[in-house]
Amino acid sequence: MFRPLKGFKARYHYLDLVVSCDFDHCNVLLLGPGLVIQGARQFDEGKARSHAEALARSYIHEEKKEDLPVLETIEWQPLNPGEWLNWRP
Asked: Which end of the chain has the smaller Cβ count within 10 Å, N or C?
């Protein structure tokens, strides 16, 4: 059975940041060209968004050492209905 999850999405340069909330925790994913990074599970939406932002900055600026400006503000938007699904057998 599929069911929609509530959450948020944002963009940090070429990475899509997704925070999907399920019951008592939020999952953090970063998606890019040929890339999926799964962040640590968080128990607060605000902390999950902060964790996603920190992961994106760390990946682009420290791991990849890309010459892109550090984005200080990231605009988060709610996930649309059906945009993120969870499978429960």
From this structure: C
Q: Average pLDDT for residues 27-42, to the nearest whole number?
A: 96
| Rama region for 39: left / alpha / beta (φ>0; ψ in -120 to 50; rest) | beta
Dihedral angle at the C-alpha atoms of 67, 70, 71, 73, nearest 10 degrees? 180
pTM given for the model: 0.90
pLDDT for res 4: 81
35 phi and psi, to 5 degrees? -145, 135
- pLDDT of 9 over the 70 cut: yes
Residue 16 CA to residue 14 CA, distance in Å, equals: 7
Helix (H) or strand (E) holding 12: strand 6-12
The three state secondary structure string of 16-40 is EEEEEEECCEEEEEEEECCEEEECC
